[in-house]
Amino acid sequence: MLVAFLVSTIAAATPLLLAATGELVVEKTGVLNLGVEGMMLGGAIAGFAAAHGTGLASVGVLAALAAGVALSLLFAVICLTLQTNQTATGLALTIFGRGFSALLGAGYVGIPAPTLPKLHVPGLSDLPVLGPVLFGHDALVYLALALLAAVAWCIRWTHLGLVMRAVGDSHEAAHALGYPVVAIRYGAVAFGGALAGLAGAYMSLAYTPMWAQDMTAGRGWVAVALVTFSAWRPVWLLVGAWFFGALMYLSLYVQALGVAVPSALLSALPYVGTVVVLVLISRDARRIRLHRPAMLGRPFQVGG
């Protein structure tokens, strides 16, 4: 039971970790993209369709990444170039992603596709408890952890991370120093879209290897919330993703036991838990102000 709990927690946390890591980079540069859910769905259907058409799950992952980038660049053009409201545009992107993925995926319901294989390390994967927990996952699980570590190191220790934080905290000062604010934000938004697309690919090719309309079930919104929960710090982002994954496993486990509780209430448990934690965290206004990028959601205009 312990092994199943740990393995299921890591699996449930992976799409959140991918999407939230991308959103963390986006918000660090001062851009608020609420279209994560739509980009995840776009990545999920693109990955599933490509994997089904080619018979290769790896091609599906690449297609999902490309779909996420394409949708994120659509958001970037509208918000960063045309200077529209970021909140409204993000919501519109989510609505568009849901509708477009439902349209494209209508012919794939109930059709199987290749799934991402589990990695097997001889001698290590067969160890009791630690084997399946640490060495029995697919490549995207390890990629999510590696990307989070790389982002944490980049933000904290590199010149690029310093520039990103400067753009997010004072885009006018960064522009005065000669940094291309809009170009940096374009790159960050594209990176966030790529990771949201990978999160969608994980949903349709690994976590639940099938296509179903709205299969992300609000995980994009949870990923955005986790960035706030973590106070824009990568370590707490990992904690939040694992916390949500643990709640999701517990809700499914309780349903399997046949406990006399409405299934809809148990299914909502992870989301209710996330909301409760966010409410508790948001009460510490000083902590939020200390780590929140000062320019978050504010447009930048040269000379404006």
List the helices and strands and how they pair.
Blueprint: H1 2-28, H2 36-54, H3 57-81, H4 86-105, H5 130-135, H6 139-157, H7 159-169, H8 171-176, H9 181-207, H10 219-229, H11 234-256, H12 263-282, H13 285-291
Helix pairs in contact: 1-6, 1-9, 1-10, 1-11, 2-3, 2-4, 2-9, 2-10, 3-4, 3-9, 6-7, 10-11, 10-12, 11-12
CATH topology annotation: ABC transporter involved in vitamin B12 uptake, BtuC
Mean of pLDDT:
88
- The amount of beta strand, in percent, is under 5%
Given the C-alpha coordinates, what overall shape results?
A: globular
Parts with pLDDT < 50 across at least 5 consecutive residues: none
CATH architecture name: Orthogonal Bundle
Order of helices and strands: HHHHHHHHHHHHH
Number of strands: 0
Number of domains: 1
Helix content: over 70%
CA distance, first residue to last residue: 59 Å
With helices defined by DSSP (H or I, 4 residues minimum), what is the helix count? 13
For the sheet with most strands, the description reads: none
For the record, the CATH class is Mainly Alpha
User: How many whole angstroms does the radius of gyration measure?
Assistant: 19 Å
Structural class: mainly alpha
Transmembrane segments: 43-76, 88-109, 129-155, 235-254, 260-281
Protein name: ABC transporter permease
Pfam families: BPD_transp_2
Membrane topology: Multi-pass membrane protein
